[in-house]
Amino acid sequence: MKIIIFYNPLKLSKDNLEQNILKPFNESGIEVLDYASAGSTLEEEQAKVADFFVVFGGDGTVLKIAEIAAIFSKPVIAVNTGNLGFLSSYSSSEIKELIEDIQKENISFSFRHLLECHVGTKKVVVLNDIVLLKSQPLGTMNVDVKLQEHTLFSFSGDGLIVSTPTGSTAYALSAGGPIIHPELNVIQLIPLAAHALNIRPFIAPPTQKIEIILKNMSKGFAYVTGDGDIIHRMEPAMSVYVTSSELTIKLAQRNGNNYLNALDKKLGFGRRFE
Ligand SMILES: NC(=O)c1ccc[n+]([C@@H]2O[C@H](COP(=O)([O-])OP(=O)(O)OC[C@H]3O[C@@H](n4cnc5c(N)ncnc54)[C@H](O)[C@@H]3O)[C@@H](O)[C@H]2O)c1
Ligand SMILES: Nc1ncnc2c1ncn2[C@@H]1O[C@H](COP(=O)(O)OP(=O)(O)OP(=O)(O)O)[C@@H](O)[C@H]1O
What is the CA radius of gyration of the chain? Predict the structure, then answer.
């Protein structure tokens, strides 16, 4: 078995990685082809021959490697060294269990759909969401949102979230959206603080092309972000285009420790608090 390790340098030092993570892997016979800070580039040849990408960090670190994992079509095993670690299947104290599961091929994977965003000359692929948001606390933006040329929303507010099912438990959850099981392939649109009584979150099919037009701002300017990273500054009359990506990623889930378990254990979903 060959793996490439990505890590969050803000959460894990290179010495700690080399001492406490690389060592057990190398002693187990699992070949670590390379290890790199999440978000950095990869040797194409090594990426091609790896069996898995193993990520040490929290959700944000997983998000940083989602696109490269999708491009090389490599399954992702996330090991939480962060806080919530909603997307993680192992904790950093479970290296031995992880090694054993890799050796015994005792890991199942769930396919996760991605979004593709075009704005200006930029193109990004995201696992959670694309967010259009005003850059300062004051004022509002006027936004038109089109689905295949039909204007679905036209509102004044703070912005808009376009989320995948995976992202439905991230910003979309905080913005009042429903939880969408990641086996579904849909696109969720959630206006942020829309000043209207007739606007609700909308769930679109993956075939729809979404155009978000920033009509104007009462003050300042806006940003469009992808998985929490700024993609582009937005000025009035600029558009953002979002479609479902053809790429998907396979995200490890420990046998028995599936999505509904994560909802229960990490978000306390549906649990009665005595
Ligand atoms: N008010 C909010 O809740 C808010 C605001 C901005 C961004 N975000 C989210 O943060 C994400 C970026 O994550 P980050 O860790 O780099 O930012 P971050 O450090 O600001 O963390 C945001 C929180 O969201 C959690 N999270 C991220 N993806 C998740 C998912 N798919 N399901 C459940 N929880 C998830 C993280 O664990 C963290 O607790 C963005 O994609 C966006 O969804 C949330
Ligand atoms: N390689 C990197 N270089 C710089 N920043 C990174 C890198 N990897 C992750 N980050 C940033 O570090 C921040 C925290 O990372 P991460 O989300 O993984 O940890 P966490 O917030 O503690 O865990 P969780 O998101 O699960 O609550 C995120 O904003 C993420 O964008």
Answer: 20
